[in-house]
Amino acid sequence: MFERILVAVDGSPHSSKTIPVAADLAARYGATVTVVHVREHERYEGQDVDFGPPQDAESLVEAALVRFRDAGVSATGEIRRVTPGNTPKEIVEVSKEMEAELIVIGTRGMTEWKSLVLGGVANKVVQQAGCPVLLVR
Questions:
Q1: Which CATH number applies to 7-72+89-94+106-136?
Q2: Binning pLDDT at 50, 70 and 90, where does residue 125 land?
Q3: How far, in Å, CA of 126 to CA of 135, rounded?
């Protein structure tokens, strides 16, 4: 049913809950997993301002990959950089590129306060995705 699963991580507690759920599904279906972390950044006065969590992107993705591999699941990782507000679009773009059959994402992430007003990343991914999206609380 699911051969390729995309898991979006952002370093938030809700994001870390997606990993065991996705690992279980991947093991059941013999699926491969791609872990994606989309990092928002902006150029400001010649400097690159990173809006991501305090943990560096490489460490965040590598920690997720270790958990998948420890569960016996084949997993690769990707880090994408976008301007603020483009995270949902980039997650959907990665899902298209890899022909994902399922996206697994946390219900609330690093932008929790913004999502109360503007609509969260997860909500926008659900609206834009061309495949099923599993929201993990």
A1: 3.40.50
A2: very high
A3: 9
